[in-house]
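fyi for ur records
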Amino acid sequence: MSIVHFLFVELWPWWLGGIAVGLLVPLMYYFLNTALGVSTGYGNLVKIILPKTKLRWLNTETFKNKFNWRFIFIVGMILGGFLSARVSGMALTTDVMGLFTQQTDWPTVAYLLWFFLGGAVLAFGARLAGGCTSGHCIHGLATFQKSSLVATIFFLLFGVIGTWLIKLFVLGGA
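which gave:
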C-alpha cells in the first residue's frame, strides 16, 4: 500500500486521527497564535460572497482580511475531500449519502434543500454558541474553558436527539 493510498483513500485508525487533530491545537497557537475553528472560515466565505453585508459580526476586525489562514483552511478541506474521493476512484459527483439516501427516495432537489437547510441550522447554532463544534470541543476543552464544556455537552445531547428524530420521522424508524 502506498503512502498516498494510506493518507487519502483508506480510513485512518481512530487513534491516528485523534493524534493529528490533537496536535493542531498547540501548532495553531505556536505558528499562528490563534485557536483552531472552522465556523469563522465559513464567515470568511460569506464575507467574500456578500462583501457589503450589514451583519455586524461579519463587519468586525476578524473578517477584515477575508483571505487569511481560515479561508485557506476551508478551501483545503473542500479540495482535500474532493481529491480524496477522486484518488479512491469515486465518481465525480454523487447523491449517495449512506443510510440516509438508501432509506429515502427523494429527488435530488429535495436532498439539496435538506442539506442546505441543515447547513443553515448548523451555522445558526455555531453563531449562537459562539463557535463551532471543532472550536469548542477541540480547542475549548483543550484549554479548559467551562463554556466549551457546556457547549460540547449540548452539541452531543442535541446531536443524539436530532439523529433519533431523523431516524424516527424521516427514515421511518430505520
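The longest helix spans residues 146-170. thats all i got for now
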